[in-house]
Known about the structure:
This protein is 48% helix and 7% strand. The protein is mostly helical. The protein is globular, with a radius of gyration of 26 Å. InterPro entries: DNA_brk_join_enz, Integrase-like_cat_sf, Integrase_recombinase_N, Phage_Integrase-like_Recomb.
Amino acid sequence: GSGIVPSPFRPHVPADRRILLWTTPHSTSTHTAMLESGISPLLQVKIFENLLLSHVPETRESYGAGLLRFTQFCDRSSIGESARMPADRFLLAAFVADTVGTCSGKCIRNWLNGLRLWHIFNDAEWHGDEGWLPALKKAADKGGVSFKRPPRGPITPAHLRALRASLDLQSPLGAASWAAALTAFWGCRRLGELLIRSPGKFSTTRDTCRDTRVGVSVVDGHRVLSIHLVWTKTTTLQGGECILTAVPHVKSDLCPVWAFQNHCRINHSPSADTPLFAYRAPSGWSYLLKDSFLRSSSTVFRSASLDQVFGHSYRIGGSLELLSTGVAPEMIMKLGGWTSLCFLIYWRRLAEVIPSAISRAWKDRITEFARAHGHPSDVDALSFDDD
Length: 387
C-alpha cells in the first residue's frame, strides 16, 4: 500500500525524510528565491537539515506517512505536480473527504499536520483550516469511530509480580528489565522516554544515558531517587525529572529504588554514553529496546492469563496505583510530566478508585470530628446507649 507514481520530485527515501526531500515545482521557486537573496546551496542544506531536527524521528515518520497518502490520492485523482503545493482548500477538502471512514479522525488530522509541515518547509501557504476543512475534520472524527483503539488497560501489581517471577534479577538483562518496568510504572513515564527504539536511532540528545544526574535523598524515612531525563515528550530537550520513591514494606518486592540500584550494581562501570537501561552482554553492552521489552513482557502476561497491555499501560497503571492510594492528582500530574489534568482520561477501574477516595474522605472527617469533640475515632467504640 505504499506505491506511488514514479517522479523526480519524489525520490525513494526513508519515511522520516519525505518531508524534506519530496518536492514540487514550488520547491524549485523557493530555492531560487533563496539564491537570489544570497543564501548559498550549502547554507540552504544547513537550514533544511536543522528544520528536520526540530522534530523527533517518530513525528517525522508519522508525517511522512501522511505525505505518502496525500501523494497517492493525488496520483489517483490525476492532480498535477504544481497543484499539490501550495495545496488549495478545495484539494485538501477532497483529500479529507476521500479518506473519511477509512481510518480514525485522529489519523487524518495527523496526515494534515504532516502536509502542513511539508508546506512550511517549502515556504508555501497553508489552507488546511479554511472553508470546509473544519467541518470535514469533524466528519472524519465521526466516520472513524470504528477505528478508534480500545482504552489501554493498566499494568497492575499482578502484572509486575508475574514479570518479576520470570526474570533473574541477578542477571544483567533481568536487572535492567526489572528496573525499566518499575521506573516506568512508579515514575508514570512513557517507555519511549526510558528505552531506545533501535541502536541505529540512538542519540545522546534524545536518549538518557548512564552519566545523567541521579539525586539520592531520604524523605520521611523513604529513599528517593531523582533521575534526570534528557528528553520527554512534553518538554522535549528541556528534559525532566523522574522521581522514584521507595514503596512501603507490604509492596517492597515492587520497590523501584531497589530495582534501579540493583541494575546499576549489576550493570556497572558503563561508559558515559551508555543508554540508561543498557545491560552487559558477552560481546559488550546491549541496548534494552522498547519493542523487545514489550514483546517479552507481553509473553509473560499471556502465560499468566493476565490482561494484554501496551507500552502506555505502565504509565496508566502507575497513575492508577497512586490515585488508589490517595496521592493527589496534582502530584501525579507533576510526577508523570503531564502539563494539565488531562491525564485523568487515563483512569481505569474507577469502581476501585472512587469508593477508595470516598472511604478515605469519610475516615478523615470522622477522625476530625471525633478529635474536636473528644470522642474515640473508632466508630465501633462509640456507645449510643441511653444512660
